Amino acid sequence: MGPGTIFLVSVKDSASNNMTEKLKDFFAHMGSSHANALGFRHSWAFIGVKGQEAFTEERSEDEPVGTGAILGYARKVKHYKKHTKITGGSKIEVHSAGYNEGSIARVLINEKEIYANSVAKRGINIVALDFETHKKVFEAAYDTFKSAAEADRFVADFKEKIP
After folding, report:
1. pTM of the full predicted structure?
2. Based on CB atoms within 10 Å of each CB, which residue in 24, 67, 125, 148 is the most buried?
3. Please, are residues 73 and 90 in contact by the beta-carbon 8 Å criterion?
4. 123 and 129 in contact (C-beta within 8 Å)?
5. Cα–Cα distance for residue pair 74/71, rounded to 1 Å
6. pLDDT 10s digit of each residue in the chain, 163 long?
7. How many helices, marked H, and strands, marked E, lie in the chain?
């Protein structure tokens, strides 16, 4: 994963049963302060940016959660002599609900759903965005409720498949 890649994590149903220490350490390294406390059927939404401290996250034992951010990106829109005007950005939202709160995982960019609950699966759902354009470059679901092998697959995919 390149510096600045934005990653959005949402738990649907439950993800903690088989979250290995390796995966918890991975999230802690990415800036999460809640991954180690994630329990059975907790809701958890996380936004991280590679190379930065934790951006934002929310966790709850007994209610749906959501977290969001407005992130800018550089896009040249006008060049005049020696000055360049740069503009652009996205409103990013990540929603999560454990099983008892509706079992939901979804991601919205500028109020448009780019990762729907109908696509999300039980466990950890991740969407990665390109730093410069905020376009989706990767999405996957890992059933860490069912299998510790899914936690290992998450870490491997994160290193190998996310730009």
Report:
1. 0.85
2. 125
3. yes
4. no
5. 10
6. 456 788 899 999 999 999 999 999 988 888 888 998 999 999 999 998 877 766 788 899 989 988 888 776 544 445 555 555 556 678 999 999 999 899 999 999 999 999 999 999 999 999 999 888 889 999 999 999 999 999 999 999 888 877 6
7. 2, 11
Cβ atoms < 10 Å from Cβ of 40: 13
The DSSP line for 110-142 is: TTEEEE-TTT--SEEEEEEE-TTT--EEEEEEE
At residue 51, φ and ψ (nearest 5 deg) are 90, 5
Q: Residue 31 and residue 25: Cα distance in Å, rounded?
A: 10
Tell me how far apart the alpha carbons of residues 58 and 18 are, in angstroms, rounded to a whole number. 20
